[in-house]
Design a protein that fits this description.
about 450 residues; alpha+beta; 11 helices; Helix Hairpins; Beta-Lactamase; rod-shaped; Heat Shock Protein 90; 5-stranded mixed β-sheet; 3 domains
């Protein structure tokens, strides 16, 4: 679940819980208030009856109490009204059949009896219908409940919008940081996170920008160092190679077979060191975004045949069969011929290293829409699944390969360079492999070009 959703859900749940708690509290508080108001009203009415009874006794005006009783009888919710004298006799009653009888207190749950004393003696009684009372309380509470629900609904709606905006405000800068981290991971060290908030996230963004700037400086120092060192190595290596060739050609006079053997070893290792220096320079250019891609019409089939011809001497040593399976019908594509040759050389060379004697390496090509899909298929020892995601990293070599193929030597840069050059051509590269059965390197090339300079890996 995304952080924004978590914050929104948590905020919404908190708002709902608070609204429910407030709503329930308000509902029961309102209920108690309504009951108290009704009790006070009934007590006031009972006192009013007691006062009328007192006035009627003082003025000896029986008509006053009779008229009042008639009015009370018509009032909603009143079950009865009566005046009981100090001798416990019913002097007057809304129901004339009770007048003159002795008052006997009864327990009736359907009626609430409210009494008030009369100063001249006795009590005034008002009986209120509990059914009517409950209905009135219910009506009032229903209105209150509807009002609470309406307010709660509006509050929840506002809460939803507020929680979403809060989550958006909080996660927006975080998403920028995540995106920036991804760009840094892709090698785009000039990435700057634009977060202007003054809180902890803003401080984190500032530290992130400082880190990216520092990484950029370190990367520049490394690139300058690599370029400087390789150039400084290339000059003396070229001189050594030249002099060794002159000696081997007999320009410095005759030599023994032992001397020739030693000088041949020096020349071979000089060539190997030269290839290593060239790989470092190419990788440094790719990482610095300085590798030039010069597209021109070219035939991948021709380049594949040329490369496999050059590598035939190596394959013959292990009796490995080299196959070109690129149909002649595939048209020329727009690509850098030299760089495509370098890609095929690196991939086929890698396959030759890890293919046992008597195996095969095939260069295959098929058209897929606007792309040319190439595959380097070998019958080698395969790559374990846990290494497939790392195989294109610089200096990455599978330890199990080293144990199985003792003669395999390399710089660990060939696949990284091939990947950078393919990306530079606007293509992509991936691997399918099964241990002890072989590996297939797939890569695509846009037939119309699509290459670009300055691609970092």
């Amino acid at each position: 679940m995304k952080l924004r959703v978590k914050i929104s859900v948590f905020s919404l749940i908190l708002i709902v819980v608070v609204i429910i708690a407030l709503g329930v509290s308000l509902y029961f508080a309102e209920k108690q208030l309504i009951i108290k108001e009704m009790n006070d009203k009934e007590k006031t009415q009972s006192k009013g009856l007691a006062e009328v009874c007192r006035q009627a006794i003082i003025t000896q005006d029986d008509l006053l109490i009779v008229n009042y009783m008639s009015k009370i009888k018509e009032a909603e919710g009143v079950a009865y009204a009566m005046y009981v004298s100090s001798l416990n006799n019913i002097v007057t009653h809304t129901d004339n059949s009770f007048i003159g009888q002795e008052y006997k207190e009864t327990k009736d749950s359907s009626v609430r009896d409210v009494r008030s004393p009369v100063l001249q003696g006795g009590n005034a009684h008002l009986g209120f219908s509990m059914k009517y009372r409950d209905e009135k309380i219910g009506e009032t509470l229903n209105k209150t409940r509807n009002l609470i629900l309406s307010v709660a609904g509006v509050s929840v709606g506002i809460g939803v919008i507020g929680s979403f905006l809060l989550a958006l405000t909080m996660t927006g800068p975080i998403k920028k940081l995540v995106k920036g981290a991804g760009l840094i991971g892709e090698g785009k060290l000039d990435t700057v996170i634009d977060v202007k908030s003054k809180d902890e996230i803003g401080n984190l963004a500032q530290e992130f920008n400082r880190m990216a700037q520092r990484l950029k400086e370190i990367e520049k120092m490394k690139e300058d160092f690599m370029s400087s060192v390789t150039h400084e190595l290339r000059s003396p290596m070229t001189a050594v190679k030249g002099y060794v060739n002159l000696i081997l050609d007999g320009k410095a006079g005759p030599m023994s077979e032992k001397q020739r053997e030693y000088l041949t070893i020096v020349r071979n290792n000089t060539a190997r060191l030269g290839r290593f220096i060239n790989d470092i320079l190419d990788l440094a250019k790719i990482e610095a975004g300085m590798m030039e891609i010069k597209p021109e019409p070219m035939s991948v089939r021709e380049v594949a045949n040329e490369i496999l011809t050059l590598l035939k001497a190596i394959s013959d040593q292990k009796n490995i069969k080299l196959i070109v399976d690129v149909p002649e019908s595939i048209p020329q594509i727009m690509a850098d011929r030299d760089r495509i040759g370098q890609i095929i050389t690196n991939l086929v060379g890698n396959s030759l290293k890890f293919t046992p004697d008597g195996g095969s390496v095939t260069v295959k090509g098929v058209e897929e829409g606007e792309f040319l899909k190439m595959a380097i298929i070998d019958t080698g020892i395969g790559i374990p699944k846990e290494y497939i995601g790392k195989i294109f990293n610089k200096f990455e070599q599978v330890s199990e390969h080293k144990q199985k193929v003792k003669t395999a030597k390399g710089t660990g840069l060939g696949l990284a360079i091939a990947r950078g050059l393919i990306i530079g051509h606007g293509g992509k590269i991936w691997i399918e492999s099964e241990v002890d059965k072989g590996t297939t390197f797939f890569f695509t090339l846009n037939k119309k070009g699509g290459g670009k300079d300055g691609v970092r890996i």
